[in-house]
Design brief:
Elements: E1 65-68, E2 71-76, E3 83-89, E4 93-94, E5 103-108, E6 116-126, E7 129-139, E8 144-146, E9 155-164, E10 167-174, E11 179-186, E12 195-200, E13 215-216, E14 219-226, E15 229-230, E16 237-241, E17 250-252, E18 261-265
């Protein structure tokens, strides 16, 4: 989730190397935890810093397309949103000996605002071992890992709902294993200005860089819904994750039926 705000690349199709100047709303807050927090205790292994860095869509770029150094998927970001939900199957991680990270989530905010309210699952690589788990976060509060077992092939359904005032309900269910968590949380001042369904390479290292993207099998998000309607009804931005050279780190399919798409891993860096 959002730990440091790493500067993302501009919209797809723009000349690489051009600098995009973000306004005051996109000012980068200081990191609120150190590299010492990158690795969780052995009971939970890895929960890295850095989810939630928003993509930046530069003026003049093609409509409904953007690149980001750590997000991929779809985001509705042209209005006010009260709910987002989707389902997905936990992918299989292939680990080759070095630490890598990937997460899959639904959330409100973070695209063009400084908070993120989100919940999802993870597959990270600790050496050659793939570690699977799930979590929620109300940034800037610390993330919370759920203790339930997660395995590849588990079917997840996640949702985040704004109830009014400062009240949110986050729900994550593993229907394969039969567990579910409903979190009622408060966060003042959230803009509710975006709703997204995302695969992510967490950010950041101690020096501010994006963490390597774990090799995951293709993950398909289905029933992606915003405000109770298919996300495709909101002209969402398709986000492609790229490295610092602008090379795609994964691929994102077009929306099928207005509410389903697949993210496929291409490279870690």
């Amino acid at each position: 989730m959002l730990r440091r705000w790493c500067i993302p690349l501009a919209g797809l199709g723009l000349v690489l190397g051009m600098l995009a100047v973000a306004g005051p709303a996109a000012a980068a807050p200081a990191a609120h935890r150190s590299a010492a927090h990158l690795i969780r205790p052995a009971a939970h292994l890895v929960r890295p810093t850095g989810h939630g860095t928003r993509p930046f869509v530069a003026h003049g770029g093609p409509a409904n397309a953007a690149s980001s150094t750590n997000w991929s998927g779809y985001a509705a970001a042209s209005g006010t949103y009260r709910s987002v939900s989707a389902s997905w199957t936990e992918p299989t991680g292939t680990c080759s000996g070095s630490a890598k990270y990937s997460s899959f989530w639904v959330g409100l905010d973070g695209y063009n605002s400084s908070t993120v309210e989100q919940t999802g699952s993870e597959v990270d690589c600790s050496g050659r071992t793939a570690e699977y788990y799930s979590w929620y976060e109300m940034y800037p509060a610390y993330p919370v890992n759920f203790s339930n077992t997660v395995r590849p092939g588990d079917h997840f359904t996640g949702s985040v709902t704004f109830n009014g005032g400062s009240s949110y309900t986050l729900k994550l269910s593993d229907t394969t294993r039969g567990w579910s968590h409903t979190i009622n949380a408060s966060l003042s001042g959230a803009a509710n200005s975006s709703a997204e369904v995302i695969a992510e390479a967490p950010c950041c290292t101690a020096s501010g860089g994006i963490l390597p993207l774990a090799h995951f099998s293709p993950v398909t998000f289905t029933s992606a819904s915003v405000n109770g309607s298919p996300i495709g009804n909101f002209s969402p931005t398709q986000i492609i994750m790229v490295n610092s050279s602008g090379t795609a780190k994964d691929s994102v399919s077009s929306l099928s039926g207005g509410n389903s798409f697949t993210v496929s891993w291409l490279r870690s860096n």
